């Protein structure tokens, strides 16, 4: 449904500022009288803090305070941070305190806040504090944490289990008892940290006269930040304003609620001066939530044609030391099942486990990449064992076009049946296969092998629930000057949200894009908001903007019709001018109509109209929309070095109606590269005692431009029937199947060695070890 | 009060004289003393490239330099890329046209790296451009639209 601007590859309205150094991120804001904070953080994975001696720190010129939690009032010692997403399965809801009162459970947990004239001095002061620790036994491996005699991540806890979950449908016992084939596989997956290029940051300022606490935060969720901060401080939400200015990437963990989010405002109120804290990269490694290991022990039952009859298994998820997000990662690992496949029966349980490491919470895709990896590896397993083509096995198992809307057998959180709204998964797969010349690959592979080169191809598919509820609202307003203003609670971290909302509003109202401005992510600017997570705001905020803009349009046309004495249905809006079709001289501008509805002192607005040419709408996102994608990856493996080169990457993606194709390309390609990092590079390593070993970019590798191939993309558009624009989300679909496709390709390249790969990331060292093991097992030489 | 040194340098054509502590990073000096917050700090250990500026025309990491080391030198930051009348440079315009940025945080470093690179290498291949920005990490874009923008700015497309 491309229109004048909707559906078009328009330039982003965010960019002129960002390209000229005029962005405004939290660290760019300087307030009069502002001081800077640094944190004293635990150097132990598990310990009791018996006391600190800050005398030398306090003697340092420029240091204003060194405070522990009790300095803010004894009541805070009994008030841990909220579990932001509670779940009845969480049996031990351990959360951090704004500063640890006594027990510290991971390296980096904040113990005291230091305030000084500059960050330089604050860090000097941290180095002068002496801490008396009593070390406690620590546990870092999530499987060992389940052993009966394992150290407890929390002192005195009965065990290390956060909670257990189960999803199931169909008769899985019967499926496995009667299936001609049953195969088993265990995989261990690791996803690493968020690594937004802008780290976290908080600036808090308390206006004592107005008793207004204002917080600028690099957050994906200013409304949740306000809600939890207000509750923690015992304040009314209206006395707390949270603003997310330009945010330099989020990828999930910036939606969480952290100790520093409370400690910094507490310090600002107590000191009576604005306080800023900017996370440095080492702190990001230590304290920003991550996704670490999840281990899937799985079984698949299939018939001779490769049709899957049932899937069952158990997942262990490393939850880290605390549950800021409840058990969400385990939930988001199970909930995407059965993915894009029509399975008759499934039974999977999950167990989330405490370890002495920083907490985990969703990173781009949450548990979906893990679930997709598992399903895709099972599809490869079935294909290999039954000697079938991997793409064909998928084609036979995908939900077919005529099955939509497809009830999977799973249940939503409210107990209602889950259903995929629309899609054509086979067409998506076939498009990706065509883009990647899958059919001709065996010839390419054979030719390369004759030349001593090891080429492989991998295939992976996924679908993704996007646009989850409840809402992101929008107000659309025409000003007296005829400009269109869109206000929303939805936040943006680089996705181009302002541009797509401007496109939606401009299309509905018949104005030029340059006449639309968008403001977002300021709790004083819009009453309600949720969070920019889970590929949801392109659906929720766009649909609300559309509904509000259409209401404004209707109001403008009604007033114009009454004023011009013509029928509403004869009117059009072009470039901000309302006129009857074919009669351009008989006209009223949106500015004139807005002025009539705004009016002036003692002049009533036109009879039958409410003041203001504006409307607010909340699209009711009752059910998620399901996007889909397939990826075909071609790799070359150097069996001498273990190096993997991505030769070719082909993707077909369906996120419904596309609002701006260039921005969707960017979301999908960026998501894929995050998945490439997960597959090949990113590993956050803790030693057995919980000491983090990878705390800089020399030790923890992110993909750079030279490791990434040019990615060929095709878009299919299956509109969602669930929202008025037909759109679906696009933020994570690139990431979800990427690791599965890459690992499949590497395994395919090394097929002559009989090599089996189950885990990721796959670095050169682990791949060489696997190659050596395979060669010594088979006695073959390369 | 900590010891300070007087430095004198040119930033984007404007001459500045300031007293700075010897340990002050060039990046912090630009951001917090001169208020030129377009230069960003992503890692502060010289890997991510977000803080890249040009020193006498050569791209450098401003997180790996002290402000005192810039004494007597000419620094150019992202704020100095566009024409005095505000017109975007061809590279900035190409980033705008190709969506070569998302969150915008790595963008100043990308621009300063590529601006210097393209002056030395006006007709790069895609592989050379990828090599040129391999010291600049972007977590959002996956690099492709950045590379497209740089190729466009270099005129590689129109010339081929």
Walk me through the structure.
The complex is a heterodimer of chains A (782) and B (160). The radius of gyration of chain A is 28 Å and the shape is globular. A 7-stranded mixed β-sheet of chain A has the order 3-5-1-12-9-10-11, with helices on both faces. In chain A, strands 7-15-14-13-8 form a 5-stranded mixed β-sheet. Among the domains of chain A are: 15-22 and 470-617, Aldehyde oxidase/xanthine dehydrogenase, molybdopterin binding domain (Aldehyde Oxidoreductase, domain 4); 405-462 and 625-782, Aldehyde Oxidoreductase, domain 4, CATH 3.30.365.10. Chain A starts with 14 loop residues before the first helix and ends with a helix. In chain A, α9 (368-386) runs parallel beside α17 (738-749) and α16 packs across α17 (738-749). Chain A is built from 18 helices and 28 strands. With 160 residues, chain B is an alpha+beta fold. Chain B folds into 2 domains: 5-80, Ubiquitin-like (UB roll), CATH 3.10.20; 90-159, [2Fe-2S]-binding domain (DNA polymerase, domain 1), CATH 1.10.150. Chain B is 32% helix and 16% strand. Chain B has 6 helices and 5 strands. Chain B has a 5-stranded mixed β-sheet with strand order 2-1-5-3-4, covered by helices on one side. The radius of gyration of chain B is 16 Å and the shape is globular. The N and C termini of chain B lie far apart (60 Å). Mean pLDDT of chain B is 95; it is low at 156-160. The chains are: A alpha+beta (782), B alpha+beta (160). At the A-B interface, α1 and α16 of A face α2, α3, α4 and α5 of B.
């Amino acid at each position: 449904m491309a229109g004048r601007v909707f559906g078009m590859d328009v330039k982003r309205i965010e960019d002129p500022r960002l390209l000229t150094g005029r962005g405004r991120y939290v660290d760019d804001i300087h307030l009069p009288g502002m001081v800077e904070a640094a944190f004293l953080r635990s150097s132990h994975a598990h310990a009791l803090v018996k006391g600190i001696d800050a005398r030398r720190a306090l003697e340092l010129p420029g240091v204003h305070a060194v405070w522990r939690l009790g300095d803010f009032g004894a009541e805070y010692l009994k008030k841990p941070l909220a579990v932001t997403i509670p779940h009845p399965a969480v049996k031990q809801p351990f959360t951090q305190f704004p500063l640890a009162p006594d027990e510290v459970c991971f390296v980096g947990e904040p113990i005291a806040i230091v305030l000084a004239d500059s960050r330089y001095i604050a860090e000097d002061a941290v180095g002068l504090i002496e801490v008396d620790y009593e070390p406690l036994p620590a546990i870092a491996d999530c499987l060992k944490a389940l052993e009966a005699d394992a150290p407890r991540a929390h002192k005195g806890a009965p065990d290390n289990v956060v909670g257990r979950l189960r999803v199931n449908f169909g008769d899985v016992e019967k499926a496995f008892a009667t299936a001609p084939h049953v195969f088993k596989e265990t995989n261990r997956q690791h996803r690493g940290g968020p690594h937004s290029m802008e780290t976290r940051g908080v600036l808090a300022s308390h206006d004592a006269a107005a008793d207004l606490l204002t917080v600028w935060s690099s957050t994906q969720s200013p409304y949740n930040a306000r809600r939890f901060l207000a509750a923690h401080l015992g304040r009314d939400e209206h006395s707390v304003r949270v603003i997310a200015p330009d945010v330099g990437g989020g990828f999930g963990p910036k939606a969480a609620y952290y100790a520093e989010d409370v400690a910094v405002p507490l310090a600002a109120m107590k000191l009576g001066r604005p306080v800023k804290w900017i996370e440095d990269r080492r702190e990001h490694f230590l304290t920003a939530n991550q996704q670490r290991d999840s281990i899937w022990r799985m079984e698949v039952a299939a018939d001779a044609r490769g049709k899957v009859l049932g899937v069952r298994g158990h997942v262990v998820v490393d939850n880290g030391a605390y549950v800021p997000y409840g058990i969400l990662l385990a939930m988001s690992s199970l909930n995407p099942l059965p993915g894009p496949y029509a399975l008759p029966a499934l039974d999977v349980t999950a167990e989330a486990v405490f370890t002495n490491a920083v907490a985990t919470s969703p990173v781009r895709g949450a548990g979906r990449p893990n679930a997709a990896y598992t399903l895709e590896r099972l599809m490869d397993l079935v294909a290999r064992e039954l000697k079938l083509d991997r793409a064909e096995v998928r084609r036979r198992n995908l939900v077919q076009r005529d099955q939509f809307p497809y009830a999977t057998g799973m249940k939503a959180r409210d107990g209602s049946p889950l259903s995929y709204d629309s899609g054509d998964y086979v067409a998506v797969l076939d498009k990706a296969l065509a883009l990647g010349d899958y059919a001709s690959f065996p010839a390419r592979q054979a030719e390369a092998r004759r030349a001593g080169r090891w080429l492989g191809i991998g295939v992976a598919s996924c679908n993704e629930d996007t646009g989850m509820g409840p809402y992101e609202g929008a107000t659309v307003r025409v000003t007296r000057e005829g400009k269109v203003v869109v206000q929303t609670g939805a936040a943006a971290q680089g996705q181009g949200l302002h541009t797509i909302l401007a496109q939606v509003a401009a299309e509905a109202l018949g104005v030029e894009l340059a006449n639309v401005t968008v403001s977002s992510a300021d709790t004083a600017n819009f009453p309600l908001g949720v969070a920019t997570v889970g590929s949801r705001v392109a659906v929720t905020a766009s649909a609300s903007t559309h509904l509000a803009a259409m209401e404004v349009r209707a109001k403008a046309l009604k007033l114009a019709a009454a004023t011009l004495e013509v029928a509403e249905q004869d009117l059009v809006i072009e470039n901000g001018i309302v006129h009857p079709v074919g009669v351009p001289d008989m006209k009223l501008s949106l500015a004139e109509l807005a002025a009539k509805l705004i009016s002036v002192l003692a002049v009533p607005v036109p009879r039958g109209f409410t003041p203001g040419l504006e409307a607010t709408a909340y699209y009711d996102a009752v059910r998620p929309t399901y996007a889909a994608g397939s990826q075909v990856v071609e790799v070359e493996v150097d069996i001498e070095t273990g190096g993997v080169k991505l030769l070719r990457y082909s993707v077909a993606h369906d996120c419904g109606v596309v609002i701006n194709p260039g921005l969707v390309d960017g979301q999908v390609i960026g998501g894929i590269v995050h998945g490439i990092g997960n597959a090949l590079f990113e590993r956050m390593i803790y030693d057995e005692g919980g000491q983090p070993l990878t705390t800089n970019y020399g030790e923890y590798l992110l993909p750079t431009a030279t490791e990434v191939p040019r990615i060929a993309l095709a878009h299919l558009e299956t509109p969602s029937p669930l929202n008025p624009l037909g759109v679906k989300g696009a933020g994570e679909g690139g990431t979800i199947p990427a690791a599965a496709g890459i690992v499949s390709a590497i395994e395919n390249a090394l097929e002559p060695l009989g090599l089996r790969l189950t885990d990721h990331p796959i670095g050169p060292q682990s791949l060489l070890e696997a190659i050596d093991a395979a060669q010594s097992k088979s006695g073959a030489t390369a | 009060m900590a010891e300070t040194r007087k430095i004198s340098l040119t930033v984007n054509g404007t001459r500045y004289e300031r007293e700075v502590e010897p340990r002050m990073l060039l990046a912090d000096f630009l951001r917090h003393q001169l208020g030129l917050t377009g230069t960003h700090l992503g890692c502060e250990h010289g890997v991510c490239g977000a803080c890249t500026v040009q020193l006498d025309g050569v791209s450098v990491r401003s997180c790996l330099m002290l402000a005192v080391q810039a004494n007597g030198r000419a620094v150019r930051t992202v704020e100095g890329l566009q024409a005095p009348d505000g017109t975007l440079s061809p590279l900035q315009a190409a980033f705008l046209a190709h969506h070569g940025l998302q969150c915008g945080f790595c963008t100043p470093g990308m621009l300063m790296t590529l601006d210097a690179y393209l002056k030395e290498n006006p007709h790069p291949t895609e592989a050379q451009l990828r090599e040129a920005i391999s010291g600049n990490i972007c977590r959002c874009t996956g690099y492709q639209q950045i590379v497209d923008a740089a190729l466009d700015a270099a005129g590689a497309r129109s010339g081929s």
